[in-house]
Specification:
Chain C: It is found in: Cell membrane. Chain C: Keywords: Cell membrane, Membrane, Transmembrane, Transmembrane helix, Transport. Chain C: Belongs to the binding-protein-dependent transport system permease family. The complex is a heterotrimer of chains A (294), B (622) and C (311). Chain B has 622 residues and is α/β, with parallel strands linked by helices. Chain B is built from 20 helices and 25 strands. Chain B has 4 domains: 165 residues, 3-Layer(aba) Sandwich (Rossmann fold), CATH 3.40.50; 78 residues, no CATH class; 225 residues, P-loop containing nucleotide triphosphate hydrolases (Rossmann fold, 3-Layer(aba) Sandwich), CATH 3.40.50.300; 71 residues, no CATH class. The longest helix of chain B has 18 residues. The chains are: A mainly alpha (294), B alpha/beta (622), C mainly alpha (311).
């Protein structure tokens, strides 16, 4: 046996494939597996809402107002006699749609802004950073409320509101990451060999800043769902009579002495979905971006 | 292995005196995802009063874990320590946590590698020293602060009284380590454990700290356990030495014996890596001796031919290169000061020649390299490659010119894009400059991998699958893919362990022979510089204060700064240990100047052919 | 230090202008025609003209901008379109309720959250840590308006222990009215602060200087509080600022749930009634709070971190 530290080429086991890795992240711990299962169930419900819902979520009935749960209406009815379960099932479509669309859009725009600011620096950076810093001073929910206060509710407005509220966060992460990756010797080496700027950005910068962006994106799915629910609860989100978990609770509170089941059902649905996305988001963050793991 | 580990199990300093520390068969394991892993595999040694024992080894050898095991500072839930550790006859491993607390800081003190992170950023220096005194009930309140002041004075911190209220961030690295020493020695412990206390420091500051530890040891009569990776430091401080490799002691003896006739080839390789300063050969750069891992013998490199093209024009000519950075002031005011990072630096580099830029942190050597590469734009001066001034080139022509001058960086782990396989990484420069087809680029990459000592079939692997030394080889291959004339190597081997370092340096010399490369070698590591260079230039506060052939500059230093630098470099001569050398207590000066500062006109004189020294001013007259 | 404070204050002024400009852009330019946005598509031309006249929208945009700035600086926010009450008066009536709710919630959140976090960090991977994790998972997921609704239904409606709406008049009744809403917000805050304290403290306890403290022979309590928690207070104090702001934004929904007066209610009601001037006033109050609280956070940092003081 040799005692000399002559380097022997280390050959670590081959990198596991994408699906193996994804399975390990999503099903690794029991609570993450539970969360993944919940998300799958909710996505299933959202897709097959028309099949699963026992009634039309908008159909009113004067004769069965504020009913408690029964064989006929498992979660009872609301003050317009609409079936609560059906409204919850359709409401899942709203939540998940906003939950996915806004973070993706925000990640796209935010990353673009952040990379441009971080890579080129100078006056562009100072301008972008100043606005980002300012907007970051606002909690996302407050920013969303204030923008929605001005713009009003409705599908596209909510998408815009939540996206704008999230852009600064992504831009900050992308900018900070770009600044640090730009300092990496491999980027300097590329500059030193004469590689062109667009190629450096696409080939050397962006792939190396994606991990925290993707991690942030999954965590913010949960935030987007919460914010949509809050806005709808405040009456500046999804416009009634379209069902959304937020406005189901709003309607429930408006008839406080009626059935509590709309509130309980929608509240538990929001909590479960947000909890599940938080757990999965944490797991993805821990796997992709160990530096920020808590 | 078995034959080698049969050296005398423990070396007892003096049978009559009871040892301060007695370690027997110390074994430490860590709980990992794969279960318990043994890191320290049975270490034994004694340390007597006033004695210094060095534990030497490379990263991962278990030397620091040994120190932490003795202090019982490892997380008890994640680690297990077996064997026996006796402090003045008392078994430490069996003490309760409370009893152990009374010993830590009171009977043994410890200092660490990173003094900055080892000090609490929110407490003043005075509070932190006073804390240890009050914990052990020696002093409290104002008396403790008074004693802290006295201790700061003892570790030779000027103006101790005013320093008491300073926070760690406002002290220099050397000062912080002095504070750590004051803290560790506050209760007059029997044993001081020093874990790589000078590794993060510049060489002149290292000399000061080593000197200080030796002086305090004589005054206090404590034993010292000194952990280091540097055999030069061992020769400076240690009476006896234990060499560790992969958790085991491969050799243990008095330091003199180790340096004279070490039996273990690993020990000999470590010793060979220490600079001999001025005693080196006059024949130009020579290979490091390398251990053959099959036979266990040392292979000395063959004689190298002279690679320098003495007749031709220099390939790289740098003239009056200057780079200054403004320090931003307030919102509406101009810069509050200016860093004179590089100030009128001039040198020539001929084909096949290696010029080393040496100096301590902040001297401007790396900035010089980056300014030459135009990774940062210098203020003024000329950088010519084969007669073309690259500072005058526009973006496109500069891009073409980059073919001729390439760079290798310090951190091998950050020098390769983790998401691109190494074959592509090596081929990228080739394809960027459209030097051939994809197929040719691939063949080129394979060929280069072979030339840097790796296997061509590794091309499809990703950087994460390589060790530090291998990555540095890959970076060299990438730089070579453009067939450059000059390579700027910025601290390129500094992050590598001693034995790996030697191999990479030898590779660089071989490549110089094969391709007629010129190196601008930027380093603070005198051992490597001595081996690899033809010429050396010493930088201080942004200026070259002395330059010339290695043998001339190292053998006959003229400038006071060069002399101080040379005096500070540890040499492999244990005999020098007993002497207390005159070490200046100066801090490394800062190159930050007022905005209106005008650098003085400098004169140079030639001592011997090619050996040029800057005339120095009054500030150097002692 | 005084110089740093002045610098920070000076820095807040451009921030304030930027905020005002953004609010102006949002209110006047983004919705297209603010008059149409306020009155709805069914508005008659003379109603629109009258609205523009009243709101000063019939002058060039740059003049509107300066009028707007001038109005804000002189605390003249205009009058409500519905009741003709000065907006400043409306804000003055509602602000105390929002402030008392926010502060009470923060206080309860801090008192519960930080000790929970310390307990979790010092008993890592044991029962208290597990309990903390479950608590924080729920706290991060449950919407405050749902939690508020459940508390309201259970303790006010069914058990009758607390009033179901309003904010009370005398001190005791105000506290009585305050308890449930504050508890709602505090639950979420405690989860956030508990988790933050746990993370920050664990990170600090892994630092080299904590090892130094142990090497000095310091007792565990001293290590945890004097070296650990004291240093962990840096990230925690940032977290306090953030959670003060998020409590403020949470107060909007909670005021609605408990039918309490407050700035959030004022804003939401104004949106429902398209009371343009009041919306603008409400937005400005929240934006002003954000700027103010961020400034305060910076100042707190100066006090706790000596490294900032020298700069």
């Amino acid at each position: 046996m040799s005692v000399i530290a002559e380097e022997t080429p280390r050959v670590p086991p081959a990198e596991p494939g994408f699906f193996t890795k994804a399975r390990k992240i999503l099903l690794g711990r029991p609570e993450t597996a539970f969360a993944t299962g919940m998300i799958v169930v909710f996505i299933f419900i959202a897709i097959f809402a028309p099949v699963l819902a026992p009634y039309d979520p908008l159909a009113q009935s004067v004769i069965k107002i504020n009913r408690l749960p029964s064989q006929e209406n498992w979660l009872g009815t609301d003050q317009f006699g609409r079936d609560v379960l059906s409204r919850l099932i359709y409401g899942s479509r709203n939540s998940l749609l906003f939950g996915f669309i806004s973070p993706v859009l925000a990640a796209l725009f935010g990353t673009m802004l952040g990379v441009v600011a971080g890579y080129f620096g100078g006056i562009v950076d100072r301008l972008i950073s100043r606005v980002i810093d300012l907007l970051l001073a606002f909690p996302e929910l407050l920013l969303a409320i204030l923008i929605a206060a001005v713009l009003g509710g409705g599908f596209w407005n909510i998408i815009a509101v939540i996206t704008v509220a999230f852009i600064p966060g992504f831009a900050r992460v992308a900018r900070a990451q770009t600044l640090s990756v730009k300092q990496e010797p491999y980027v300097e080496a590329a500059i030193a060999t004469g590689v062109r700027t667009p190629v450096i950005i696409v080939r050397h910068i962006i792939p190396n800043i994606m991990a925290p962006i993707v991690a942030l994106m999954t965590l913010w799915v949960a935030s987007a769902i919460r914010i949509e629910a809050s806005l709808s609860f405040l009456g500046i989100g999804t416009r009634p009579p379209n069902p959304s978990w937020g406005n189901i609770i709003r309607d429930g509170l408006n008839s406080l002495f009626g059935s509590p089941w709309p509130i309980i059902g929608a509240g538990i649905a929001i909590t479960l979905v947000v909890l599940s996305f938080n757990l999965v988001g944490d797991a993805i963050r821990d796997a992709l971006d160990p530096s920020t793991a808590r | 292995m078995s034959a080698m580990s049969n050296f005398a199990e423990t070396v007892v300093p003096n049978a009559d005196v009871e040892p301060v520390l007695s370690v027997r068969d110390l074994k430490t394991s860590f709980l990992t995802s794969k279960g318990w892993v043994e890191i320290v595999k049975g270490i034994s040694f004694d340390i007597g009063p006033r004695e210094t024992l060095a534990v030497v080894g490379e990263s991962g050898s278990g030397k620091s874990v040994t120190a932490l095991s003795i202090m019982r500072l490892l997380d008890p839930e994640m680690s297990r320590v077996d064997g026996s550790v006796k402090l003045a006859g008392r078994e430490l491993l069996k003490l309760s946590p409370g009893e152990m607390r009374n010993i830590r800081g009171r009977q043994m003190g410890m200092i660490f590698q990173e003094a900055m992170t080892s000090l609490n950023p929110l407490q003043t220096v005075g509070q932190q020293i006073a804390e240890v005194l009050s914990i052990h009930g020696l002093y409290s309140g104002q008396a403790a602060l008074k004693e802290a002041e006295r201790l700061l004075d003892r570790v030779r911190i000027p103006g101790a009284a005013s320093r008491l209220k300073d926070y760690p961030h406002s002290l220099s690295g050397g000062m912080r380590q002095r504070v750590m020493i004051a803290m560790a020695l506050a209760c007059k412990p029997k044993l001081l454990i020093a874990d790589e206390p000078t590794t993060a420091l510049d060489v002149t500051i290292q000399a000061q700290i080593l000197q200080l530890i030796k002086q305090l040891q004589q005054e206090e009569g404590m034993g010292v356990l000194f952990i280091t990776h540097d055999m030069g430091v061992v020769a400076e401080v240690a009476d006896r030495t234990v060499v560790m490799l992969q958790g085991k002691a491969v050799e243990a003896d008095s330091t003199e014996v180790i340096f004279e006739r070490a039996e273990n080839p690993y020990t000999r390789a470590l010793i060979a890596a220490v600079p001999k300063l001025g005693q080196g050969s006059q024949k130009g750069p020579q290979h490091f001796p390398i251990l053959d891992r099959k036979t266990g013998t040392i292979v000395t490199g063959r004689e190298r031919p002279d690679t320098v093209r003495h007749d031709a024009e220099p390939v790289l000519r740098v003239k009056d290169l200057t780079k200054r950075f403004d320090i931003p002031g307030g919102l509406f005011s101009g810069p509050s000061g200016r860093v004179h990072a590089v100030e009128k630096v001039s040198f020539d580099l001929r084909a096949g020649e290696t010029l080393s830029l040496v100096g301590e942190s902040g001297c401007g050597k790396s900035t010089t390299g980056r300014a030459i590469m135009r990774l940062i734009e210098p203020q003024s001066g000329e950088v010519s490659i084969e007669g073309t001034d690259i500072r005058a080139l526009d973006k496109e022509r500069m891009r073409d010119m980059r073919r001729h001058i390439q760079m290798i960086f310090q951190d091998p782990y950050a020098s390769l894009n983790p998401r691109i396989n190494i074959g592509e990484a090596i081929a990228e420069p080739f394809l960027t400059h459209k030097l051939g087809t994809r197929q040719q680029a691939r063949e080129k990459a394979m060929d280069l991998l072979e030339r840097v000592g790796l296997s061509p079939d590794m091309a499809s692997r990703f950087p994460a699958q390589f060790s530090g030394g291998q990555r540095q080889r890959i970076c060299i291959a990438r730089a070579l893919s453009l067939e450059p004339k000059v390579i700027v190597a910025d601290e390129s081997v500094s992050a590598l362990d001693v034995s790996i370092k030697a191999q990479v340096v030898n590779l660089m010399m071989d490549l110089q022979e094969q391709f007629g490369l010129s190196y601008l070698f930027i380093s603070h590591d005198m051992a490597v510089v001595e081996r690899i260079s033809h010429q050396v230039a010493v930088m201080y506060l942004g200026e070259i204060v002395e330059k010339g052939p290695v043998a001339a500059v190292f053998g006959n230093p003229q400038h006071p700064y060069t002399k101080r630098l040379m005096a500070a470099v540890p040499v492999p001569d244990p005999a020098r240990r007993k002497q207390l050398r005159p070490v200046s207590n100066d801090e490394v000066k800062s190159p930050i100047r007022p905005v209106d500062y005008v650098p003085p006109q400098r004169d140079y004189r030639e001592i011997s052919p090619g050996h040029i020294v800057q005339a120095w001013g009054d500030d150097w007259k002692v | 230090m005084a110089r740093y404070l002045l610098l920070r204050l000076g820095d807040a002024i451009p921030t304030l202008f930027l905020v005002l400009t953004l609010v102006f852009i949002a209110m006047r330019i983004l919705p297209g025609d603010p008059a149409l946005a306020a009155l709805g598509d069914g508005a008659l031309p003379e109603q629109l003209a009258d609205f523009r006249e009243r709101m000063g929208l019939n002058v060039p945009l740059w003049q509107q901008y300066f009028n707007f700035l001038g109005g804000v600086l002189t605390l003249d926010f205009g009058r409500s379109l519905l009741t003709n009450t000065p907006v400043l008066q409306l804000i003055g009536q509602n602000l105390p309720y929002t402030i008392e709710l926010t502060l009470a919630a923060m206080l309860m959140g801090i008192v519960a959250g930080i000790p929970l976090g310390v307990m979790a960090a010092t008993n890592r991977n044991k029962a208290p840590d597990g309990g903390m994790r479950i608590f924080s998972l729920i706290g991060y997921a449950i919407p405050d308006f749902f939690l508020g609704a459940i508390l309201l239904i259970t303790f006010a409606l069914n058990l009758g222990w607390f009033p179901i709406n309003g904010a009370g008049s005398d001190f005791v009744s105000r506290l009585h009215h305050l308890f449930l809403p504050a508890l709602t917000l505090a639950f979420v805050k405690a989860a956030f602060l508990g988790r933050l304290t746990r993370t920050s403290l664990l990170e600090v306890l892994g630092k080299d200087y904590v090892r130094t403290a142990r090497a000095k022979g310091a007792k565990e309590n001293r290590v945890i509080y004097k070296h650990g928690l004291r240093n962990a207070m840096l990230p925690i104090s940032t977290g306090l600022g953030l959670s003060l702001l998020s409590t403020l934004s949470g107060s909007v929904a909670v005021e609605l749930v408990f039918n309490r007066p407050g700035i959030g209610r004022l804003l939401i009601d104004a949106i429902a009634q398209r009371d343009y001037a009041v919306i603008q006033g409400g937005v400005l109050v929240f934006a002003g709070f954000v700027v103010l609280i961020n400034l305060l956070m910076d100042l707190v940092y100066v006090v706790v971190d000596p490294r900032v003081r020298v700069k």
